[in-house]
Structures are given as C-alpha cells and as structure tokens.
C-alpha cells in the first residue's frame, strides 16, 4: 500500500497513483519557499520539530498540516513535558469546552466536492453521539470556516490542507484551508477522500494530535521523525492502545483514499466529548 501524507503533504509519486496515473513533471515542482534560521529557531522554541517546515501565507506549516502564524511563533509558550511512547491517540492541552455544543461549519469559495466532503465529515462525527455536534451553515457566523488556497508542489510534496488547535478559551480552531491546486485532488476530486482530509483537520480543531506524532515513519515511511514537544501538549487518552494503531483517522499519513474512525478513535473521542 502506497503511503501519502494525510491532510497536508503527500509525495508526487503518490499523486501518480491517485490522480489519473499522471506522470510527475519537474516543471510543476515549484521552488520551495525558504524558511529563515530565525523562523526555524522560533519553531524550535515553540516546541515543534523543524523537520520539513513549509512556508505559507502568514506563517508556516509544521507536522505536515498544522498552521502556525508568525504572530504565534513570537509568543512565549510553555507546556507539560510530553510522554514519548508508542503509537496512541493523543490530545492537546486545550480542548473545546462549553458542552453540549453545536459547532457551525461554513464552506466558502470551494466547489461541490468540498461541500459534499464537509457534509461527509460532519455526518461521521454526528453519528458518534458526542456532546459536540456539527452543522454546516451557508450564512451567518461559523465556528470553523473551510476555505481554499492554491499552492503547487514544493520539494516533492504538496499541501492538501491545514488547520490548528483549540484556543485557551475552549473554542475550536477557526479555520481549515484546503488546497485547490490541480496536483492536490485532481480535476475531479473524490468526495470520500476530500471528506477524510476534512475529517482529519476537524480532529485537529478539536484538539487531536497525530496518532503517530512521536514517529511519523509509522504511517509515512522513511526516517523516524518526532513532531516535537510543542507547547500545545501531547497527552495520551486513556483507553487507547499502547501499541501501533493502524488506520486511525489522525495518523500523519494515509493511503490517499477513504479513511474514517477506527475503534480506538471512537474510544478517544467519546472519552473527551461524550
């Protein structure tokens, strides 16, 4: 099974398998935006790994799909010492509070596949019977806005989407960005794949870290990489396994297809939000 970076970075050779069997074209591989040593130092001080950092408008993307603004990187942060263990479900220090609660999601400026993908992700969460429920709205204010950006391949990878973690006030992260570039989802995006990526990004907005944050090679292959301590915390959720857990919706990498919650994901979400 080919492994691709879930929800944010997957190798162009993986795109060959997913997008109409197209051959990779070096002419489409845009020059990576350089990340300065000062910014890398800020990322390290913030507690995230400085491996495979990608510049984007207004900040950087770390861990494959976590957006950190330049303003965030200039803040002084502190957090608990992380437990580096096996592959398990992990949450951040901040969670969404004020339960029961309806989380309103708005999709702006994106095509029908992204709207249908959002509805797919929402339905999957709502079937769990959590004290968090989700509703897509087309007008008025929303707790999470899903919008597009267009960024081509860079350094052999392409960003599929990004999001962040809950605020200190107990609100979900307010924005999910989905890539509209042709090399991200192709000209006819698969709704279940798009929905799986959105489902993953919503997980971050609710406070979920990557299941394999301490060793991305478990789902991504290649060199073992720890995503870093980070001031946001990485707290193991009771009841989830202390051994590698395949097919979790929060694994850092996927097979580029449909992926939803496995049994341990459901345990984790119900522990936090039921």
From TrEMBL:
The keyword Acyltransferase does not apply. GO terms for molecular function: metallopeptidase activity. Pfam families: Peptidase_M57. Residues 1-23 form the signal peptide. The keyword Transmembrane does not apply. Keywords: Signal. This is Dual-action HEIGH metallo-peptidase. It comes from Chitinophaga jiangningensis. The lineage of its organism: Bacteria, Pseudomonadati, Bacteroidota, Chitinophagia, Chitinophagales.
């Amino acid at each position: 099974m080919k492994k691709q970076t879930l929800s944010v970075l997957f190798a162009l050779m993986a795109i060959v398998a997913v997008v109409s069997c197209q051959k990779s074209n070096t002419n489409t591989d845009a020059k990576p935006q350089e990340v300065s040593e000062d910014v890398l130092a800020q990322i390290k001080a913030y507690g995230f790994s400085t491996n495979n950092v990608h510049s984007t408008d207004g900040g950087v993307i770390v861990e494959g799909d976590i957006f950190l603004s330049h303003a965030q990187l200039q803040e002084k942060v502190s957090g608990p010492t992380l437990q580096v263990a096996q592959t398990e479900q992990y949450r951040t220090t901040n969670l969404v509070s004020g339960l029961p609660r309806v989380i309103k999601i708005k999709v702006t400026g994106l095509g029908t596949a992204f709207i249908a993908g959002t509805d797919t992700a929402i339905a999957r969460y709502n079937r769990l019977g959590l004290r968090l429920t989700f509703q897509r709205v087309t007008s008025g204010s929303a707790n999470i806005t899903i919008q597009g950006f267009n960024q081509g391949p860079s350094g052999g990878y392409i960003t599929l989407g990004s999001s962040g973690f809950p605020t200190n006030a107990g609100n979900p992260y307010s924005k999910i960005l989905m890539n509209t570039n042709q090399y991200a989802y192709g000209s006819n995006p698969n709704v279940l794949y798009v929905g799986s990526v959105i489902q993953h990004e919503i997980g971050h907005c609710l406070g979920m870290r990557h299941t394999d944050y301490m060793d991305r090679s478990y789902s991504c292959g290649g060199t073992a990489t720890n995503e870093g301590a980070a001031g946001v915390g990485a707290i193991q959720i009771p009841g989830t396994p202390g051994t590698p857990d395949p097919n979790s919706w929060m694994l850092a990498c996927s097979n580029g297809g449909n992926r939803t919650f496995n049994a341990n994901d459901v345990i984790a979400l119900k522990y936090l939000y039921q």
